[in-house]
């Protein structure tokens, strides 16, 4: 996929931060990815989704002359990501959240 997802568990809420980015690239002894500026924040408890940095993406698309296929891929992946959020697919499912919330609690006791 052309995005990565971070889930943040707080006492008062669960929040996802998602970056639109290239798949991971291996180069010599390091792993890299290209961040395409667009981000999505999803506040589970509020059911609120925010798309961030649209202007920054548009500015950098022009500045760095992203090829059309990159822009098309980013737009397609944004639709996939928002669909996953809306339909609670994969890491956005309640089952995933519950499992990993329990795992984080276990880690606090160790």
What can you see in these coordinates?
The structure is a single chain. The protein contains three helices and six strands; from the N terminus they run E-E-E-E-E-E-H-H-H. It is of the alpha+beta class. The strands form two sheets. The chain has a four-stranded antiparallel sheet. A two-stranded antiparallel ribbon has the order 3-4. The termini are far apart. The mean pLDDT is 94.
Overview features:
110 residues, alpha+beta, two-stranded antiparallel ribbon, 3 helices, 6 strands
Draw up the topology in text.
Layout: E1 3-9, E2 14-21, E3 25-27, E4 30-32, E5 35-43, E6 48-52, H1 54-63, H2 68-87, H3 94-109
Antiparallel strand pairs: 1-2, 2-5, 3-4, 5-6
Which residues form runs of ≥5 with pLDDT under 50?
none
Q: What general form does the structure show?
A: globular
Largest sheet: 4 strands, antiparallel
* Number of extended strands: 6
Class based on secondary structure composition and strand pairing = alpha+beta
SSE string, helix = H, strand = E? EEEEEEHHH
Major sheet strand order? 1-2-5-6
Alpha plus pi helix count: 3
């Amino acid at each position: 996929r052309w995005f990565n997802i971070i889930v943040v568990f707080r006492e008062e809420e669960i929040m996802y931060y998602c970056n639109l980015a290239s798949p991971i690239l291996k180069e010599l002894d390091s792993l890299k990815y290209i961040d395409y500026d667009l981000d999505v924040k999803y506040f589970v408890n509020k059911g609120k989704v925010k798309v961030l940095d649209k202007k920054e993406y548009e500015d950098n698309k022009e500045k760095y002359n992203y090829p059309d296929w990159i822009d098309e891929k980013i737009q397609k992946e944004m639709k996939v990501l928002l669909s996953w959020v809306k339909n609670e697919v994969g890491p956005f499912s309640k089952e995933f959240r519950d499992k990993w919330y329990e795992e984080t609690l276990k880690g606090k006791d160790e």
